[in-house]
Amino acid sequence: MLSGRVAIVTGGSSGIGEATALTLARAGAKVAVAARREPQLNAIVSQLASEGHEAIAHCTDVTELSQVEELAEATKERFGRIDILVNNAGTMPTSPMTEGRISDWKDMVDVNVNGVLHGVGAVLPAMLEQGTGHIVMIGSIAGRRPFRGGTVYAATKFAVRALSWGLHLELGAEHGIRVTDIQPGQVATELYDAVPEGSFKDAWDQAWEGKRRLKPQDIADTVLFAVSSPEHVAVSEILIRPLDQPG
């Protein structure tokens, strides 16, 4: 399905990123898996190698532009091109504005916005030269509506949504580069580990007790659908949420 194509997946050491890297590789793509946790990356690459797939691990902090540029360079050097970027790295330390945890706000902007921009900037030269490419953003339902305690997180995902549409306008018809913003609802991943302990987290856990969340594989399958669509098709946005999520 993706034979001959090369993908980069950020935030690839667990959750949605890990599932996406495995899914794209098993669909025939050569994959560069990037994140800060090198042992987990190496384990994923070893698993793919044992299945006969080509992949490389690259320890990367997306908040550092130089590291993301090195990731793109290493991918192109190893595989010769870059066809797909899955901008998945993200953080969500829910932070009510009244608590004034400004460092959390800045961290979310650094990872969720600047990290995304670094990824786009790093792969664009290769994609422009090729005249083809696909940039996938892992946005959020929060990019459509904020939630209590997640105001800054939602703001970062609104930014991703605006960036995705703007990139489509600038890169689509003229340069052959497609952009997809995938907007999950609740997914059972480590993202929620960043939610601080306390009354807010207790209420959150209680609200989801006994309810079904999405699985990382659900999002990976959605990514595969987008990137395997015909070249003339622009899958601009996909909103995917659990059936048990009311809003």
Question: Would you write up a description of this structure?
Answer:
The protein has 247 residues and is α/β, with parallel strands linked by helices. The chain has helices at residues 15-26, 38-50, 65-79, 102-130, 151-175, 199-208, 216-227; strands at 6-9, 30-35, 55-59, 84-87, 133-138, 177-184, 237-240. It has a single domain (6-202, 219-239), classed as Rossmann fold (3-Layer(aba) Sandwich), CATH 3.40.50.720. The protein has a seven-stranded parallel β-sheet, sandwiched between helices. Helix 1 crosses helix 7 (216-227), helix 3 (65-79) packs parallel to helix 4 (102-130) and helix 4 runs parallel beside helix 5. It starts with 5 loop residues before the first strand and ends in a 7-residue tail after the last strand.
Write the layout of secondary structure elements.
Elements lengths: L5 E4 L5 H12 L3 E6 L2 H13 L4 E5 L5 H15 L4 E4 L14 H29 L2 E6 L12 H25 L1 E8 L14 H10 L7 H12 L9 E4 L7
Parallel strand pairs: 1-2, 1-4, 2-3, 4-5, 5-6, 6-7
Helix pairs in contact: 1-7, 3-4, 4-5
Summarize the structure.
The mean pLDDT is 93. The protein has seven helices and seven strands; from the N terminus they run βαβαβαβαβαβααβ.
